[in-house]
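Explain this protein:
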Amino acid sequence: MLLKIRLKLFLLLFTGIVFFVQARANDFADNSFLIGQLTPAEYSSNRLFDFIKDNNWTGLELAINSDNKEINLTNSTIPFSEILEKIELLLQNEESKIIPVFINYSGNVHVLDSVINASRLSNQIFYLPQGERWPSIEYLVQANRRVIFFVEGDIQNESRILHETTNYALEIGASQITPNSAILKRESNINKELFKISNFDRLPTGVSTSLVNRNLFPEYINFLLESWTKYGKKPNFLFVENSIYNFGFIIEQLNSFEAVKGQVRTIGKNFERVFWKNAETLITGGKFSFPIRGGEEMILTPFVPGFSLAPSQLTITAEMVKPEQYSILATPLLLNRGLMASFHFENELADVVNPERNFDGNGYTFSQDIDRGNVLRLPENANVNLGHPELYGLPNSSFTISCFVKFIDILEFGDNAILGNDETGYRRGLHLVLRSGHPYFGLWANDFMSDELLETNKWYHLTWRYILETGQQAIFVNGQYVGGSDGHPPYSGTNDIFIGSALSGGASLRGYIDNLYIWNRPLGNEEINRLALDEEIIYEPAETPTTLLSTRNIVIILASIAFIFLLFILILLRKMNARKQSILVNNPETPTKNQIQLFGEFKAINENNEDVSDLFTPKVRELFIFTLIHSMKNGIGASIPDVNETLWYGIEAKKVANNRAVTLNKLRKILAHFNKVEITSQNGYLHLNLSEDFFCDYVEAFNLCKIPEGMSRQQLQLFFHLVKKGRLLKGVDWAWLDEIRGFTGNQVIDNLLKLALDYKKENKPKEVEKVSQRILDYDDLNEEALYLQIWGLQKTNNSHLAKFNFESFCSKYQKTMGESYALNFKEFTHHYADQL
């Protein structure tokens, strides 16, 4: 009964946020096909056609050439028309068979069309106009449109029955790693609905493909699963040339994995590109699909620059009833969201966002421009010091910087500096400049330059955008994207940044600047276009607690004292009821207000139930977590010398105190959004004070581990729910956190092993599999967890996946330890059956 109530609450919670969309059953794009190569020898032996006849989800590729009006199989005199007849016979033998055919051909495509249209296949061909979605398998079968032609090569003219592969499918090769930049160079690539993997038979496993079988080399399946996860689409076409007979098991294995499917959309359309904060996923189109391995829990966190997504995160567990599709809806953000600085240069150096700050510089003046009114003039050697980059959330973070700028003199061989510092070293030197007239995005040996060439005495709107998750550096001129590249690590400099100065060589602006904005988030393309149109940004400062009390407030407080006094005894009794009880009333699976999540991705929800995670800039977040962990560890807090040494290592002492004070002030402003959470400074320590109304999964897990007699069964289950979202602070890379992570990981493994063994004694295989999967996420070579996972899979009649998981373990063991695992599958299961 309790389970039913929780399920109803869960569904109510997401009503209007996650829409369950009824997908067309078994879309063509949700299936995988094994593609074999038709050579003259294969044609003569008929072996490939026999294999396709006996195996569904197969297709063929062939190369043909045209000699006048005859079209033959390459290197033969076999007419293409005879091949079409054999394909038609395959369709006759099996009424539900779908056959994709890939043709390599160069020449006038109309000649090829005429041969196909003259065959008996002509009324069984399906053709999809570019831009439309692929139909369901049922539709193709019922309409008897069961052969689908794709073509590659130097083609002349346009076909109405042949799909050019490059227009319909994202393609990667298995024989070598495809750079992400090559895939993402054209934005349209990632949004193609189909996914082709060429040279799959040449995946470097170190073993001949003639020895491949279903019990060996999980590298093939792992590669497919990793590719599926990385690009958010299921591999549709696996090209194996003449090795198709050794890969018959692949499609069955791949189809044994359940998929989570959905779409990320705004009003009326799916997005072209969706970024993901999941380490395994790079970027997808608006339509996505991800595989679920075994009983693992999936946490999906998409984001689109310039939009707020609802829900912001999807958590998918094995026990959930999953819809056919998830639909994630996007709402445009206000331009002031994440705004860290706003300079209008109205005859003063003032930051609207931080009016308390003072700025100085050299050689600058204010000028009245005929087009833009008051602007800042920066001739040669003039600059304005903006201070430490941490003040603007720039280091190790996404950011966007935009401004209007006009150059009096553009250097033919040199740099005109808009914003930068004088620091050298990889990732430490920031230089947003014109280099020989071209907009340039520099992070010192980690740079990108646009082909766009700017002119003197002309106002331009320039924007530089960096996206942390993909490492994208992008440049926009007058609101239009003019170039960028992916894979750049983030900026990590510490020297002050300047307007009108960059590089140790002393580059200058030599012109005018207006409306300089800095955000600690990546802006969307539409937002940048609006900025170029000079849209006004209305900044609303966050409300902060005030120490001044009005008369009305005093009356309210006095009137409340009596009520508070009456509750005092009850509060004392509640505290005496032990911390055990307080942690049991918080169900971490249910999103509640006033909480911060540290397991998995960092997430903060204020007392108004608003996600304010992006308010925590990297350094503010680090200060909060450093103080929290030390406050839990010793009850005193983090000593200020430790804070200085750890968070601002290498910065000169006179700057550390100022940086710490600014960061601490920001943190206190953010914590004002939460109920009864504050950070205090006393006796040289920073201490985080938490009320019982505030929930943090790490705090609850920490207190559970401190119970002297160990956790009860109910507490072990609660502990599992707390930690199952993933490793502590997934995706965060702080050296000081390694020791804490290691200790926490050991606690997780020890306690979850106890829970899994309890479930095993009670013969609950599904629960055993889920818990053991979480242990393996912390330690992928944990033999006890692997055995428990295998036990759970075998008990649920999934022996095929159990063996696959064992082979994956052996492969990881070989790569990590440099030697083969000592036991085979049978020996392994017998050995641990006696021990556990």
Summary: Residues 586-701 form a domain with the Arc Repressor Mutant, subunit A fold (CATH 1.10.10.10).
